[in-house]
Amino acid sequence: MKSDLLDQIRSELRSQLGRLSRAAMEAHAAATDPGSKAEGKYDTRSLEASYLAIGQARQVDELAEAVRIFDGLVLADFGSGERIDAGALVEVVMGAEVSSFLLVPAAGGLEFFHNGKAVTLLTPASALYQKLVGLGVGDRLDAPAMRVTGVI
């Protein structure tokens, strides 16, 4: 099951990288286009286009790094009595809602659907990731209020 998850994540990351790379190239072209040259001292089109190009280039670099990480990533399977750790697929109940989180080293915040369920990627930078590590099935958190119902 986790290999299917990883394949889906890799595919989504590559798709996002392609889209973002094209957008970054377009932003760079706009920033360097002679038509975006300032026509007066208050005309900031060129400056704004260059800031956009720089920001998108950084995002491309981060996403390319995430693709590289996921290309080499193998997720361990967790038994029913094991504690949550990196690589765990965690199911929790928050109120009446069931949520799934995959604890991974990169691409935090990415959400996708797998087998009809929404799965959100959490990285160690996330406070929720830090709170989940070490918990087991049946354990509860107060903030946010949730109960762990599954660890795979």
Number of helices: 3
Uncertain segments = none
Spatial order of the strands in the main sheet?
Answer: 3-4-2-1-6-5
What is the distance, rounded to the nearest whole angstrom, between the alpha carbons of the first and last residues? 9 Å
Give the helices and strands, then pairings:
Elements: H1 2-32, H2 45-71, E1 89-94, E2 97-103, E3 111-114, E4 117-122, H3 127-132, E5 140-141, E6 146-151
Parallel strand pairs: 2-4
Antiparallel strand pairs: 1-2, 1-6, 3-4, 5-6
Helix pairs in contact: 1-2
Your description of this structure?
This protein is an alpha+beta fold and 152 residues long. The protein folds into 2 domains: 70 residues; 63 residues, no CATH class. The chain is 42% helix and 20% strand. It has a 6-stranded mixed beta sheet. A hairpin with a 2-residue loop joins β1 and β2. α1 runs antiparallel to α2. The longest helix is centred in the N-terminal third of the chain and has 31 residues. The mean pLDDT is 92.
